Amino acid sequence: MPDTPLIAYDHVRKRFAGNGGVVAVDDVSLVVASGEFLAIVGGSGSGKTTLLRLTNRLIEADAGTITVDGEDVASLDPVSLRRRIGYVFQSGGLFPHMSVAANIGITPKLLDTPAPEIAARVDELLDLVRLDRKQYRDRLPHELSGGQRQRISVARALAARPRIVLMDEPFGALDPLTRDALGEDYRALHKALGLTTIMITHDMTEALLLADRVAVMRSGRLLSVGTPTELAVSDQPYVKELLQTPRRQTERLKVLLPQGGFA
Amino acid sequence: MSLAADPRVAEAWSHLADYLGSHLRVSIAALALGLAVSLPLALLARNRPLLRGSLLGVASVVQTVPGLALLALFYPLLLALAALALRWFGFGFSAFGFLPAVLALALYSMLPVLRNTITGLNGIDPALIEAAQGVGMTARQSLTTVELPLALPVIMAGIRTAAVWVIGTATLSTPIGQTSLGNYIFAGLQTQNWVLVVFGCVAAAVLALAVDQLLALIEQGLRMRSRLRSALGGAGIALMVAASLIPALAMSSARYVVGAKTFTEQYVLSALLTDRLEASGLSAVTRSGLGSSVIYEALRNGDIDLYVDYSGTLWANQFHHSEMLPREQLLDALKKDLAAQKVTLLGGLGFENAYALVMPRKKAEALHVRSIDDLAGHTSDMSIAGDYEFFSRPEWAALRKAYGLSFKAQRQMQPDFMYAAVASGEVDVIAGYTSDGLIAKYDLVVLDDNKHAIPPYDAILLLSPKRADDQVLQDALKPLLGRIDLKTMQQANLRASGNNAESSPPAVARWLWEKIAPVK
Fold first, then answer.
1. What residue numbers bound the domain in which B313 lies?
2. Is A243 inside a domain boundary?
3. Shortest CB distance from B127 goes to which of A80, A83, A93?
4. Which of A30, A187, B122, B440 has its CA 20 to 30 A from that of B225?
């Protein structure tokens, strides 16, 4: 499935000043193919979010190169780079003083898309994330549930028809049912729209279920990257440790739900 | 008598358009200037801790300066600047009234705007600012579409605080020559006309509340994205500005401006002068409540056209002479000093309003005190009260030196209150004014200055340089020269210090004219 590399990290390093100069990303090289769904898994302080932010230059790398579609991002205008990459923030990052429609339409508006076109696009996206157009268009973010907010956040990321979507623990704060539904819906969108997605998560189960490949990070270093099958045979102790939880859960669920249910 | 029918209320109403309009004009100009400076500064400083700290520090210090002092300081500052501008660029500007008031009030308005704008912007969730970047906003777009709207309630709260402060403090711009609702308060305080004081306070409070509510309406409109509310609030403010400009437009340029200092006699005399000018067909307005040091400079600069001063005051305070000359010689010397500055001394009104040491008659008789010399032996267990400037004036130094006075305590007081204070025994001696009607009312006695330590204080009429050759004006004023004797002035002052319908300065001025008018 991975063919042409759309995003490539080559010996990327990022050190933060202060606190004794913590190395957040330490010599990471990684290739994400066009159309691929990559999940990056790691605990807090593993550098996974930093790596994601380096991609659209929310922060700048100290060393190494990052290319998007063959172009070194350091040579691109960061603002226009960000406008062509969708980004879903951890807590949604919706602007509380703007309606759902204004939030979704923000990037097209920044790109000077005509208003009627934006309105049509907003309705289309509300359909896409399965929220009723009429009911939600004019609401303010605080009138929505957590799951609805993340759906809007996904819609906003997709508004300017990006080829790439970066997601920073997008479903982390949701209840399990909503989270599962949203994950599945997004996976379908990823396929249907031919997106290339990098998703940050601390939950190995979620990563395994949604992604084509999973990258494991710890203390700024990329420990391992591969398909779930490849990871399963990894001899990295930390990868084994991360896989323990989903394995144990599976065993336990098999016992609890002997019919092989649909949990 | 109902309050509404009281002629003092009617008089207060008759000034409302002028005072309120001027007050609003100076307040809104100051607020606009304050915002125009503070908002960009706040944006510039919010992410620069050093600049932010020093800006807020300076603004806080400004806030601790009492409003009256801040306004007073801007007058000499601008006077110096105007002199420099005249020398370097060949044009001057008026350092009187509007300009110093606007600058001082604008400075006063800065702290709440700076602090709230910085606090509001820095209090925004950093995740939202990152989101704004993430969706592709430039720093400017992030500021205008995300940060400023989110900080708006806090920023508007600062602007509203500033508006209320400015409108309240603008009442203190009267002494530097800016007409405001403070004219009611200063005049009322000096002539013990409490109706005027209350009227001025209520008007200022109502104005502050109205502006505050209109700003609140604009804020609600912006926050709830209700164009109607913002438009209503904006229209209200615009209407106020427009209304405040109408009296200014109606004001003709040919008017004579009569100045008055901040005490009863001056209010009465300025009303008398204004009446005389109008009787001769000249249009005149009064600028009252001017500070003692402001008024002479204002005359020299032509910001006012005429006023009454006292020879000894000018001699000692304006021209800094320390030697005391006999009355006629002093007047001649003063006339030369004034002429050097192109100010015309038209003549004396006929009475003297001198500083004098005053005490209750009974106490003076009991102690066998008739002159200051007699008093000198008793002062070590006595207290003395004077007005706000007396103890820093050269006359006080001269008195102490000549008689070897050394009082146990000295206190500063509102002039109108010190007569009652000495009558009731709260202080033993006061530095009063010889023309004050309260001396007779409280049965006080003026102590002889047998060593002539205090200079003569003839009430003299001064004209600004541009009126030096104005024959019509001088003819209108000449009937007043030498016509007012001390007793008449004392009676007039006593009438004006009453608290009734006949005690307003214009009413007393009419009474005074009837007494002194030449028989036809």
1. 256-352+461-516
2. yes
3. A93
4. B122
